[in-house]
Please model this.
Amino acid sequence: MSAQAAADDCKSALKRRILAAIGQVRGDSDTYLVLVVDEYAAKILSSACRMFDILDSGCLALEKLELGRERLDMPALYFLEPSDDSIDRLIADFAGKKPQYSDVHVFFTSRCDDDLMERIGESKVADHIVTLKELNADFIAAESRVYHFNRNNAIPAIFFPPNEQAIITELSATAHKIASLCLTLNEYPYIMYRGQNKACEFLAKFVEDDLNKLVASLPDWQFNSQNRATLLITDRSLDVIAPLLHEVTYQAMAHDLLDINGEILKLPKEDEDESKDDGAGDAKKKKKANDDKQVFVLSEDDALWVEFRHEHFARVLSGVSKKFRAFQSSNALAKLQGQASGNIKVEQMRQALADAPEYQQLASSFVKHISIASKLSTIYSDQLIDRLGELEQSLATNLTGDLNTPKSSSLSNQLSELCGNPKVTVYNKLRIIMLYMLSQGKMKDSSRNELFSVAGINYQLQKAVRNLKHLGVDLNKKLKIPRDRIKQFKERANESNLVLDRYIPELHTIITSLVQGQLQNDSAWPYVKEPPPAVDAPAQSRRATGGVKSVRKRGQWRNNSAAAAEEKDEEASKSRGTSGPRYIIFCLGGMTLSEMRTCYQVSQQLDANCIIGSSSILTPENYIKGLAEVPLDADPNAADDDDELTGIKIDDL
Model:
């Protein structure tokens, strides 16, 4: 991504919003602050800002609301989720004889309910509050083009909620978060949604309503009206296959096979078991293993990670090694280490010292990625990922590695052999069983039960299969893949020339069609209202260009003159590094790492400004746990074998 485009990405926009709030509190004074955050706000903050950003903004300390803190006679800025727990803790900080801080500035991540506001007003903290605002920065900027809402178990709440109110609550909360994202990005988008799913329609209308209310309350706010954005809302049921596949690109494979939480990777040491636990491990053994791991950070601050994260993992080892050799030949300190001490000159020593910080940083990065790629290579071999992946690709694409139609008997034999193989983990066995049932259709109850028994799939995890029906899947019917999709898979395989790289996520086609203007008149993807003006096909084939003005009443969103707004819009457009509009994609229920990669690929291929987000980032294991209604941190083997299937569809509302 160019420097200009990076200036307007998810991370940069969120960072500017947070630091602007701190700057607003400090003003032109030399006053320093204590920044206090709760658990959720800390995730938002850390996704966009580093510690030096916080310190440089005038905050002397960063404190966690949930922990005990020293009383300080200085002002504090609280950045909080407007929840009962956080409000209780805020009030408690000022309930005693001595307040926690002298003055307090409170910024909420999103709208604070009236009853919570009343509780604040009736407490002692009200006497110390100088600022009380809703910042509307209620999302996590995972990457420059990726955001999510930290709703890690959203699938049950969306697709089979316990009651009618639960899904309305989920969609309403999601709409608030999408609206806050749009405000942060200075976008007032046209809103499209997947017409096949009522939940998408409800959500789209909720977002429209929330944005209208927010914009009406912010008369000085301006959006990018010259190249107005489009928000596309889809959902997980669009593609139930992608979350089950073994990806062999670096980032997706690492998230699938290694222990990653956010940007933090905990890597087992050489003498430890590299694989993820399959749900039946001993608690004490797990704790000991967690206490003795290498910890790495995988973020966009790491140039090697950004360069290789979407590459096939086999290319990472060779690519990083090649770069390391080039680094050794160019870095003065690296070259100096290879010389005999008697031949070192003063000028060489001076240059080596100058290069020392870069050497330490890059050398550490090289070692990190070589270690990770080596570990992935080991797991790939030990857990038979090559054989699993080949079967998965054949089931998902109806194409073998040599691009022929697979025989049913061959697929069945491969499935039986892998399900009985002790090297294959329980979750990996369930993944291929689910793909087989999605691909091949109805299976006899006796055959299915025998397969579950051989694979060691307990009753709780079997619910993942049964609950696929809530995502619109009919397991009695064989998967029908359209001819154009088969053609795409073949083209992908020929272009890639890599194993396990035939399947293309459905979202890749949708985003491409969106950018090329092919969804504009597609009844399957309606607008909430106000579709963009028609544009000639050649111009729209990449993106709408120039002169698209907002058709909303100007009084709803600004007080400034139209000329001033257009001038500001032009500057904003230049900062994005593209003359076209932004495309904001949201996938209700979770997005995969392959879909995240798709967003970058389409943006690069079509020179478009796309960002993608979801309720959460899904790994295959979390996808299965969501379908099985298993808490993400729970041992599914200890779950209650309750056969009752819950679920209310939004069509029933």
Observations:
- The radius of gyration is 26 Å.
- Residues 346-382 form the longest helix (37 residues).
- Residues 1-7, 340-346, 535-577, 636-653 have pLDDT under 50 and may be disordered.
